[in-house]
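Friendly challenge for the regulars: who can give me the structure tokens for this chain first? No prize, just bragging rights.
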Amino acid sequence: MDPKNLLAGPGLSAGPAATYLPADPEADEALRSGQDPTDVAARFPASSAAWAALAERAFGNGEAVAAYAYARTGYHRGLDQLRRAGWRGNGPVPWAHEPNRGFLRSLHMLGSAAAAIGEDDEAARCRQFLAETSPEAAEVLADSTGRGLRTVAERSSDRRSPGLRPGERRCYGGHPTGARGAAGGSGGSSPRANTG
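First reply, four minutes later:
Bragging rights claimed.
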């Protein structure tokens, strides 16, 4: 018996059971073989792993808005699958079970992209949800990206790029912002205004 949980015992549970998503062997093999995630997502739109791969690629290319959209799609596809597998809105989704990783990666990327576009409340919700659902995934994914989920304020020192005029910052959407913005308009300094 677990000394931390006096109610645990044969047939008793301290909380919701872990949820294990079914494998998606065709989509997984397509991704493992190096096929473009765009093609894999088109052929297997229910694959959270394909959407997560698209989000990771977009985010790595500085396309935070595209990453957000891809990650949100993967997240919702994963939620649908979790519910079909008996998940009731809480409980563990173990990282060790490989078919769960597409959903968990999508959730992580949703939080990362949300932080990049200034949706700090959503980034915090994603960070908490990931940590509660799979502490291992939260640790592995933060370590793999080397950045975890950071807010716009936490990244303020990252925005200065060589070649920009004084007062301009490079937003994660790739467009400079500042007094005149990317297109010479009035573009303010809001990171949300020029991220796409």
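The chain has two domains: 38-145, 159-196. The chain has seven helices and two strands. Your move, everyone else.
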